[in-house]
Amino acid sequence: MSATPHQSSPEPAVDETRAVVNPGRWVLDAGRSSVVFASKTLWGLAVVHGEFTRFSGVGTISKDGTAQGRLEIDSASVNTNNKTRDGHLRSADFFNAQTYPQIVVDVLSARLANGNQVHLSAQLTVAGVRKPRQCIAMMVDASADEVTLQVEVEIDKREFGMTSNRLNMLKDPSRVSVFAKFTRTNTPK
C-alpha cells in the first residue's frame, strides 16, 4: 500500500447524494481505502509520512438518514518504511500495540449537510485513552451501493498519553487522512 492520499472527485449535488445513499449496513472495502498520516520531526524541518496497512470498518444508515459506524485500525500495522522507527511507534512510548492492539473510531452520529459534507460526532480511542472528536468528512463519491468518504484531522499525541519526544524533535499535531470506500451489504428491515 502507498501512503499517498487518494484524489477527490467532483462534489456531488445535494439532491443527487440524498437520493443515492440508501439505508442498510455498509462495510469498508479496505483494499480501496487508506489510513495515512504525516508528522513533523527534526524540530519541524522534516515530515515523516506513514500509513496503517490493516484496518476494517462498518456503518449503518437508517431509513431516517441517521448513521453510525466504527473504524478499527491495527496499531501494529503502522508503516513509515523505517523498521526502527516503526518498532518505536509500536512500543509503549506511542501506540503500545502489544497492550492496545487497536485504534478505534466510534462514529456515534453522522449527518449529511451542505451538499457533500458529513458532520461526524465520534469517540477516538488510542493507546487505551478515549477522547471525543467532532469533524467534517467529505463525501467524494456516492451511489446506491457505494459511498466514499474522506476526512482529515489533526491529532495531538499528548492527548493520548504519548509524551515521548527525544530531544524535543517531534512537533504536534500529526495530520491523519482517511479515505474510506464503503459498500452496502443489505437493506434494513
Describe the structure in your own words.
The chain contains two helices and eleven strands; from the N terminus they run αββββββαβββββ. It is mainly β and 189 residues long. The longest helix has 8 residues, at 83-90. The radius of gyration is 17 Å and the shape is elongated. It starts with 13 loop residues before the first helix and ends with a strand. The model is unreliable at 1-19 (pLDDT under 50).
Any key phrases for this structure?
189 residues, mainly beta, Lipocalin, disordered N terminus
SSE layout and pairing:
Blueprint: H1 14-20, E1 24-28, E2 34-41, E3 46-52, E4 55-61, E5 67-74, E6 78-79, H2 83-90, E7 102-113, E8 117-126, E9 129-142, E10 146-155, E11 171-186
Antiparallel strand pairs: 1-4, 1-11, 2-3, 2-11, 3-6, 4-5, 5-7, 7-8, 8-9, 9-10, 10-11
* Form type: elongated
CATH-derived topology: Lipocalin
Helix content: under 10%
Poorly predicted residue ranges? 1-19
Overall tally of structural domains: 1
The CATH architecture term is Beta Barrel
- Please state the structural category: mainly beta
CATH superfamily: Lipid/polyisoprenoid-binding, YceI-like
Strand order of the largest sheet: 1-4-5-7-8-9-10-11
Q: What is the element string, with H for helices and E for strands?
A: HEEEEEEHEEEEE
Query: Radius of gyration over alpha carbons?
Result: 17 Å
Main sheet properties: 8 strands, antiparallel, barrel
Q: What is the CATH class?
A: Mainly Beta
* End-to-end CA span: 37 Å
Q: Beta-strand level of the residues, as a percent range?
A: over 45%
**Tally of helical segments:** 2
